[in-house]
Write a structure and sequence with these properties.
The complex is a heterodimer of chains A (about 650) and B (about 190).
Chain A lengths: L6 H14 L6 E5 L2 H5 L2 H14 L7 E5 L11 E4 L3 E3 L7 H10 L9 E2 L6 E2 L6 H4 L17 H6 L4 H9 L2 H11 L11 H10 L6 E6 L8 H8 L1 H15 L3 E7 L3 H17 L14 E7 L8 H8 L23 E5 H13 L1 H5 L9 E8 L5 E6 L4 H8 L9 E6 L5 E4 L9 H6 L8 E6 L4 H15 L5 H18 L7 H15 L3 H5 L2 H20 L11 E5 L9 H5 L5 E4 L2 E5 L9 H5 L7 E5 L17 H4 L1
Parallel strand pairs in A: 1-2, 7-8, 7-10, 8-9, 11-15
Antiparallel strand pairs in A: 1-3, 3-4, 5-6, 11-12, 13-14, 13-15, 16-19, 17-18
Chain B lengths: L2 E6 L2 E6 L4 H7 L23 E6 L2 E6 L10 E3 L3 H15 L6 H10 L18 H9 L5 E4 L6 E4 L1 H7 L5 H5 L5 H11 L3
Parallel strand pairs in B: 1-5
Antiparallel strand pairs in B: 1-2, 3-4, 3-5, 6-7
The chains are: A alpha/beta (about 650), B alpha+beta (about 190).
C-alpha cells in the first residue's frame, strides 16, 4: 500500500478504493463483534463463504465480517446488501437457504426476519426494526459497514479526511476551538469538557506531552468502548492523532485491557495499516506533524480506569491512584501534561472535525451535546448497544429501543453509571438522559452502562452486589475506600441474610459519608453510590429486610421459603422429579409438600410448576403454613371416578 | 523559592512553594494527626487521618494535608465537625484490625471513637505502608511489598530477599503504628520452611 503524502493523494486513494468497490454488488455483512462471535458468528461466516463458493457465486457476492451491529440479543446478525435485508439469530444450517432463496431468488426467508415479541409484526430491513429505528448511530453506525481489519473500508466511508482537514486546513488552535465549541464532554465517567482538558494540557509548560485513550472499560455489563474499538478502531486512532495535533503531543498511548483480545488484535492491525499509509509516523500527510502510538495492555484491574491509576500503570508501576491536586492534564504520565479521554470520546472527534461543531451541537441537550452509546443489559428484551441523542428519556431508551421488560414483568429500576452510579426508580423514567440530569438524581452517566431491573430484583441485594464487586476492585491503598467498602459489604450482606439490626442504615450512611469525603480517588469517593441511591428511592426495602426479615422482591434466599399451595397442586410430579435435594414429598395423586428443612431454595420447583397450576409460591416475612395432614393429600380425579 | 502566605486555624503562616499544608502546619506548631506519614519518605496519602478543610476562591474542600501543596491565601481548618467525624470513623475502621495499637488508642480517645463499632478482624495491619516504603525508599531493598488488592490487600515479605536482608535490619519494625506485630508475624511466616 502506498504512503500518502498530501490531502490530494488521500483523496485520490479514496476515490480509487471507492471505484473498486462496486456499490451495487451484493454483499453479506455478518456481525463479528464479540457478542455475535459468542453466539456462533464465526461458523456462520465460514458457512456463507463455503456456500457462496459452492453455488458458484464467489465473483458476484462479497462476504464480510463486520464490527458489532448492536442487536446482541438476536445475534448472530446478518445483513444483505444492497437491499439491507436483516436476518437475526442465523445459524450455519440456515445459510444454504439464505443463499438460494434471498441472494439468488431475491426472496425473503420469513422465519429469520425480525418479529416483534408482543405484536408479531415483522420487519425485514435493519432500518425498519424498532430497535434501530429509534436510534441515531453516529459513532457505532459505521460498524455495520466496515471490516474492522480493513483500513480501506474505513477510508471508503471518508476515514482520515478529518485528519487531513485538521492537519492541513486548520491550525492546532482552530482544531482545539472547534472541539471547545462542540461542547463535547468526556464519555468515560465524569463528563469533563474535552476542549477544556485539551486546552489545559496545550497551555501547560513542557515540550513533551501525551494523549491517551482509556480503553480500560470495566463496569459490569458495559461494553460500549469494546465494540467501538473492536468494530471501528481507525475512528479512535484518527481522533487520537487529531487530539495530538491540537494539544501539541507527538506520542499517544492506548491503554486497553488484555481481556479484550479482539479489540487488541484489531487495534494492532489498525496501527500497522495507518503507519503504512502514513497517518502515523513522520510528517503525516506532508504537514510536518509527527505522531506515534504505543499500546499498553492492562492487566485487568478495574481501578486502572481511573485516570491517575492508569497513568501510574503506563509508567510501569502498580496501578494505584495518586492524588490529583494538580490535574493530570498538567502533570500526568512521568509528570508531563497528559490528556486522557475514553474510546467513545476520541471516536467523536473525527466526526466533529469533519462535519463541524455546529453539526454536533444540534443533537442533545443544552449542556450535554451529541449522542451517547449505552449498553442495555439485565431484564430487558433487546439486550444490546444503542446510540441515542443526549436528552432522550430513559423511558424511550428502555421501552422504545430496548423493547421493554421480558416475561410481562414490571419495570423497577435502571442502574446507570456502573459501580459509581446509582439506581433510578420508575417514577423518574421520563428523565432526559444527560450528564447533569443523571447526577442530579443521585446517579451518573459513567461510561453508559444501563442495567435494567424488574420487580423480582431486590434493591438491597443490588447494592450488596456492587459493593462486593468494589471490595475486589478497590486498590486497597486508602482506608476510607478499603475499610469503608469492607464494612459496608458486611452490613449489607447481613441485611440480605436476615441478620440486619436497628442502626445498620445509620452505620452505612456514616461509612458512605466518610468514603465520599475522604477517599483518595473518585472510585472510592463514589463507591457508596449504589447504596446511597437505593436507600434514597427504596428505603422501605431496607427497612423490611431489617425489621420484618422480609424481602419484598422475594429474592433474598435466606429470607424466603418456597411453598406449594395445596389447593392448586394437581400432583403432576414435575417439581418432585426435578427437585435436586429430594425435598418434595408427593407422588401420583398425592398433593406435593415441600419439606422445608431439606429445601435448598434453588427455585427449580417454582420454575417448573406448569403455569396453568401456578401452585408453587414464595413466602417472605411470614411463617410457612404447616403441611396439610396426610389424609387430605389424596386427589381423586373426576375423570377416573366415572 | 517564593514565599507563600496563608492561614491555618486562623494563624498566619509563611511557607515556601512546594511545601505541603502538613509541613507548614508543623512549622508553626499546629498539630495534625498522621499515621502513614514519615518525614524521610515520600508522602503517601493512604490513612486519610490528616484530612483538613481548605478554602480557596470561596470553595471549601476536604483534602489530605500531607499531599496538598500550599498556595497563597489558602484558609486551612484542621478541626471541624466534618473533619472530626471523618477521623473518628477512620479510627473505628482501623481499630477493627489493630485493637491494641497505642497510637490508635490515643486517637480514639481524642476523637471519641468507639473501639467496638465494627466487628474485630485483627490482622494488626492498617496498610500504612511505612514498612514497605521504608524498605524501598531508604534501604532500597524491596524485601517486602503489598500483595493482592481491595479488602484482601496485605503486606508480604519476599522470602528470598527477606532471608538475606531482614534479620540484621528490622528497622521497619520500629515504624509500625500497630507495634510491629504484623511485620514480625509475616516475616516469620515468610521465612519458615513450607
Amino acid at each position: 500500500m502506498p504512503r500518502i503524502n498530501s490531502p490530494g493523494e488521500l483523496e485520490a486513494v479514496r476515490r480509487e478504493i471507492e471505484s473498486q468497490a462496486d456499490r451495487a454488488k451484493p454483499c453479506v455483512l455478518i456481525c463479528a463483534g464479540s457478542g455475535c462471535i459468542a453466539s456462533g458468528a464465526a461458523e456462520v461466516i465460514a458457512a456463507f463463504r463455503a456456500e457462496i463458493e459452492n453455488q458458484g457465486l464467489a465473483v458476484d457476492i462479497g462476504t464480510k465480517g463486520t464490527g458489532c451491529h448492536g442487536f446482541c440479543e438476536r445475534g448472530p446478525v446478518v445483513v444483505l446488501y444492497p437491499e439491507e435485508i436483516c436476518y437475526l439469530q442465523v445459524k450455519p444450517e440456515d445459510v444454504p437457504e439464505i443463499v438460494s432463496k434471498t441472494l439468488k431468488g431475491k426472496e425473503i426467508v420469513e422465519r429469520l426476519v425480525y418479529a416483534d415479541r408482543a405484536t408479531g409484526e415483522k420487519a425485514s430491513r435493519e432500518s425498519e426494526i424498532p430497535f434501530y429505528k429509534n436510534q441515531q448511530r453516529h459513532v457505532i453506525g459505521s460498524n455495520v459497514r466496515i471490516d474492522p481489519k480493513s483500513i480501506e473500508d474505513y477510508m471508503a466511508l471518508g476515514g482520515y479526511t478529518a485528519l487531513s482537514k485538521a492537519l492541513c486546513d486548520m491550525t492546532a488552535v482552530e482544531v482545539l476551538g472547534e472541539i471547545k465549541k462542540s461542547n463535547l464532554r468526556g464519555r468515560g465517567g465524569g463528563g469533563f469538557p474535552t476542549g477544556r482538558k485539551w486546552e489545559e494540557s496545550r497551555n501547560a509548560p513542557g515540550d513533551i506531552k501525551y494523549v491517551i485513550v482509556n480503553a480500560d472499560e470495566g463496569d459490569p455489563g458495559a461494553y460500549m468502548d469494546r465494540s467501538v474499538l473492536e468494530g471501528n478502531p481507525h475512528s479512535v486512532l484518527e481522533g487520537l492523532i487529531i487530539g495530538g495535533w491540537a494539544v501539541g503531543a507527538c506520542q499517544g498511548f492506548v491503554y486497553v485491557r488484555q481481556e479484550y483480545p479482539l479489540a487488541v488484535e484489531n487495534l494492532m492491525i489498525a496501527i500497522e495499516q495507518a503507519t503504512e499509509y502514513g497517518f502515523l509516523g513522520q510528517n503525516i500527510l506532508g504537514s510536518g506533524f509527527d505522531f506515534k502510538v504505543t499500546v499498553h495492555r492492562g492487566a485487568g484491574a478495574f481501578v486502572c480506569g481511573e485516570s491517575s491509576a492508569l497513568m501510574t500503570a503506563i509508567e510501569g508501576k502498580a496501578g494505584e491512584p495518586r492524588p490529583k491536586y494538580i490535574h493530570t492534564a498538567i502533570k500526568g504520565v512521568w509528570d508531563r501534561p497528559s490528556v486522557l479521554n475514553n474510546v467513545e470520546t476520541w471516536a467523536n472527534v473525527p466526526l466533529i472535525i469533519a462535519r463541524g461543531a455546529d453539526w454536533f451541537t444540534q443533537f442533545g441537550t443544552e449542556k450535554s451535546k451529541g449522542t451517547k452509546i449505552f449498553s442495555l443489559v439485565g431484564k430487558i428484551n433487546n439486550t444490546g448497544l444503542v446510540e441515542v441523542p443526549m436528552g432522550t428519556t430513559l423511558r424511550d431508551i428502555i421501552f422504545k429501543v430496548g423493547g421493554g421488560i421480558p416475561g410481562g414483568r414490571k419495570f423497577k429500576a435502571v442502574q446507570t453509571g456502573g459501580p459509581s452510579g446509582g439506581c433510578i426508580p420508575e417514577s423518574m423514567l421520563d428523565l432526559e438522559v444527560g450528564f447533569d440530569e443523571l447526577s442530579k438524581v443521585g446517579s451518573m452517566m459513567g461510561s453508559g452502562g444501563m442495567i435494567i431491573m424488574d420487580e423480582d430484583t431486590c434493591m438491597v441485594d443490588v447494592a450488596r452486589y456492587f459493593l462486593d464487586f468494589l471490595a475486589d476492585e478497590s486498590c486497597g491503598k486508602c482506608v476510607p475506600c478499603r475499610e469503608g467498602i469492607r464494612q459496608m459489604l458486611k452490613i449489607l450482606t447481613n441485611i440480605t441474610q436476615g441478620k440486619g439490626k436497628e442502626g445498620d442504615i445509620e452505620r452505612l450512611e456514616e461509612l458512605a459519608e466518610v468514603a465520599g469525603y475522604a477517599a483518595l480517588c473518585a472510585l472510592g469517593r463514589t463507591a457508596p453510590n449504589p447504596f446511597l441511591s437505593t436507600l434514597k428511592y427504596f428505603r422501605e426495602e431496607y427497612e423490611a429486610h431489617i425489621r420484618d426479615k422480609k424481602c419484598p422482591a422475594l429474592s433474598c434466599k435466606e429470607l424466603i421459603a418456597y411453598y406449594i399451595d395445596p389447593n392448586k397442586c394437581r400432583a403432576c410430579m414435575t417439581c418432585s422429579k426435578q427437585c435436586p435435594s429430594n425435598a418434595i414429598d408427593g407422588g401420583k395423586n398425592r398433593i406435593h409438600v415441600i419439606e422445608q428443612d431439606k429445601c435448598t431454595k434453588c427455585g427449580t420447583c417454582f420454575e417448573v410448576c406448569p403455569s396453568r397450576f401456578g401452585a408453587v409460591t414464595k413466602i417472605s416475612g411470614a411463617p410457612v403454613p404447616p403441611p396439610i395432614p396426610e389424609e387430605a393429600r389424596i386427589i381423586t380425579r373426576e375423570s377416573k371416578q366415572k | 523559592m517564593s514565599e507563600i502566605l496563608f492561614t491555618i486555624d486562623a494563624k498566619e503562616v509563611k511557607a515556601t512553594e512546594g511545601m505541603t499544608v502538613l509541613e507548614a502546619a508543623k512549622s508553626i506548631g499546629v498539630f495534625i494527626p498522621t499515621l502513614c506519614h514519615h518525614e524521610k519518605l515520600e508522602p503517601y496519602g493512604a490513612c486519610r487521618i490528616c484530612m483538613v478543610e481548605v478554602e480557596t476562591g470561596g470553595r471549601t474542600r476536604i483534602v489530605a494535608s500531607c499531599l496538598y501543596p500550599v498556595e497563597p491565601n489558602l484558609v486551612v481548618r484542621t478541626r471541624s465537625q466534618t473533619i472530626d467525624k471523618i477521623r473518628r470513623v477512620l479510627i473505628e475502621e482501623m481499630l477493627a484490625h489493630a485493637p491494641d495499637s497505642v497510637q490508635l488508642d490515643e486517637l480514639a480517645k481524642e476523637y471519641g471513637a468507639d473501639r467496638d463499632r465494627f466487628e474485630k478482624e485483627p490482622s494488626f495491619c492498617i496498610h500504612c505502608g511505612l514498612c514497605v516504603r521504608y524498605c524501598a525508599e531508604i534501604k532500597k531493598k524491596n524485601a517486602l511489598g503489598f500483595i493482592d488488592r481491595g479488602a484482601r490487600r496485605e503486606i508480604s515479605f519476599i522470602p528470598k530477599l527477606a532471608a538475606e536482608e531482614c534479620w540484621n535490619c528490622k528497622e521497619c519494625f520500629e515504624l509500625c503504628p500497630t507495634s510491629a506485630l504484623q511485620a514480625a508475624y509475616v516475616l516469620a511466616q515468610a521465612l519458615s520452611p513450607v
